Amino acid sequence: MAEVDLADIQGFILRGYTMPAVRHFFLRVGDAAAARRFLGGLVSGDEAASPQLTTAQVWTVKPDYCLNVALTFDGLKALGLPAATLSSFPAEFQAGSASRAESVGDTGSSAPAFWEPPFNSTDVHVILSLYAAGREVLEARTAVLKALFERGGGMTEAGRRDGYELPDGKVHFGYQDGISQPNIEGAPGRKVTDMQPVSPTGAFLLGYPSQFVEFTYPVPQPLEFGRNGSFVAFRVLQQDCAGFERFLTENAPKVGMSPEKLAAKLCGRWRNGVPIELSPDTDSPQPPIPREEYNDFDYVVSPVNPNGFDDRKGYRCPIGSHLRRNNPRGEMVAGGDDGRKHRIIRRGIAYGPPFDPDHPDDGVERGLLGLFIGVSLLDQFEFLMSQWVNEGIFTPGIGGTKDPILGANDPATSKFTIPDPAGAKTITGFSRFVITRGSAYGFLPSATALRFLASAPPTP
Amino acid sequence: MTEPSTPSTPSTPSPDTQTSATPATQPATQTRVQNPLTLIMTLKSPEDFEQLNAQLRHFQGLPPEQNPLNQALTATGIVHFARFVFLENNTKLGVFTAYDGSLAAYVNAFVDKVGKVFDLLLSHMADAPPLPVEQHRQEFLAYIQSHDVPVVEPFYSAYPTLTVLDILSNSGN
């Protein structure tokens, strides 16, 4: 097993922070040397001089803020990385999210033409993510950081997005989120029992053997810049809560179930997080399922799931549901055991005020600020969105359909099937509920990489 | 993308109704999920042909469950058919398949399952990509794409909307 230097790796790659507030700054590089000094300051070890990057080291005392940073390809260019370094990055990262939009379903109302500032520009060079224990800390640290990144004309703020945890840890649409994350070799903390193989380090960090046979992803050069890094798809995902609730109330009677059960069938979990695979009829099974077992299930019987329910037909958890599409677990899919090779880390938080069903069309934008992390944007984020969310040929029974919650659904063609021993029920004619308002591909450099940046002058 | 409709099935003649068998008709709106691969590779030398021919015939002579070609292709879950044909006086090897979906999206799964087979085949080829293919995946994909001879479209399929997994599932496997 590879030795992983937790102090060198950005924390949120390997573990969540569970902080209730986050502010993502989108920064434009001005003076490259000054910007590099700021980035180097994040790993100087001198908390008095600058807030410090949060690494994957285990906390003895939980801090009141966390800080992480992503660099886009435009940012690498603006920081003056040499041509040899720039060309050593993967093609999809170099191309940037706007040019990859079609393949991931950012079409129609989600197309780049409609993205909000600054995502409709080339000004997103650096994404600085400030997590905080509360609003006071958020504002205090913001003031400190702003003074620092603006110093010497290093960087200017092209925009920012704030996220706040909703009550009960839910996200908009009313679901508990963040229950399922891959166990990663070398990550701190206890492994969660989930009937799934532990992901190799190299599925989430550059420089280690990956989830594919005898393959390590090429490390961007030089080694001290690329190693221990990772990639993130940063997404501003607007959620049509009014449309979603209307969909539930209108369609639930048509398919002979309660709106809550329909919500569970769409997602794969009841809105309180209980997996429908373990509790097909109620979100309050007796005896209750312990919270730490909410991810301990599979859809098929196997050596890791010898006593489970054989749900190959999807009678409990529809094959086309959000959860099952994005992580088929032991189910047979195109590619063979490919179902286990496209895991992803999800760090997300709600933005916008809670949805009030009594004022459904309040005209306020709300949704999710999502970070989707993996060693390969192509084989993880882009694969999931193009092959499993927006395509239905990877497993039998869902041909011609897309993910009902996340997919680029068009009322003319959309379809969700609820398998049932008495006869499948289908819902058609629904629109997409999640609209992309902005997207950026970022490189998550290691602490070593940031020191390297600060130690070298920009290439003129 | 238009919704594929269920293909009609041919009716069989019965003594009572005296209907004649009619061929199945394909609705025009079906979206084909299968794609052809027409891979033509040039061997390095006559000796390479002798070696590769012997190796392939050895594999193909094994029972299916011990034939590594068979096992690898089955494991991908996306290959409908595959045949290996020596061409042009044994100077070339053709690999002809029909497979589901996007080759680019599934290249990693393909290499994980069939990579060792291609390491063997490509070791005898004149302009092979860097080997082993497990470590040079994007180069392997580029090689396949450049050696895949384009067909005169459309590629015909009697069941264009059915994947390998659909067919196996429908037949109770």
Oligomer: heterodimer
Strand order of the largest sheet of chain A: 2-3-1-4
Radius of gyration of chain A: 22 Å
Instruction: Tell me about the largest β-sheet of chain B.
Output: 3 strands, antiparallel
Low-confidence stretches of chain B: 1-23
Q: What percent of the residues of chain B sit in helical stretches (DSSP H or I)?
A: 25-40%
Structural class of chain B: alpha+beta
Mean pLDDT rating of chain B: 86
Question: Strand order of the main beta sheet of chain B, please?
Answer: 1-3-2
User: Which class best fits the helix and strand makeup of chain A?
Assistant: alpha+beta
**Number of DSSP helices of chain A?**
13
Cα-based radius of gyration of chain B, to the nearest Å: 19 Å
What is the chain-wise order of helices and strands of chain B? Answer: EHHEEHHH
The share of residues in helices of chain A is 10-25%
Arithmetic mean pLDDT of chain A: 96
Question: Termini of chain B, distance in Å?
Answer: 29 Å
The run of helices and strands of chain A is HEHEHHHHEHEHEHHHEEHEEEH
| End-to-end separation of chain A | 41 Å
Largest sheet of chain A: 4 strands, antiparallel
Characterise this structure:
The complex is a heterodimer of chains A (460) and B (173). Chain A is an alpha+beta fold. Chain A is 22% helix and 17% strand. Chain A has 13 helices and 10 strands. In chain A, strands 2-3-1-4 form a 4-stranded antiparallel β-sheet. Chain A has a 4-stranded antiparallel β-sheet with strand order 6-7-5-10. In chain A, helix 2 (32-41) runs antiparallel to helix 13. The radius of gyration of chain A is 22 Å and the shape is globular. Chain B has 173 residues and is an alpha+beta fold. Chain B has 5 helices and 3 strands, in the order E-H-H-E-E-H-H-H. Chain B has helices spanning 46-60, 68-76, 103-122, 137-147, 164-170; strands at 34-42, 79-87, 92-100. A 3-stranded antiparallel β-sheet of chain B has the order 1-3-2, covered by helices on one side. In chain B, helix 2 (68-76) runs antiparallel to helix 3 (103-122). Chain B starts with 33 loop residues before the first strand and ends with a helix. The relative contact order of chain B is 0.18. Chain A binds chain B through residues 212-216, 332-336, 338, 341, 379, 383, 386-387, 391, 393-397, 399-400, 413, 415, and chain B through 1-4, 31, 33, 75-78, 100-102, 105-106, 108-113, 115, 132, 134-135, 137, 161, 163-166, 169-170.
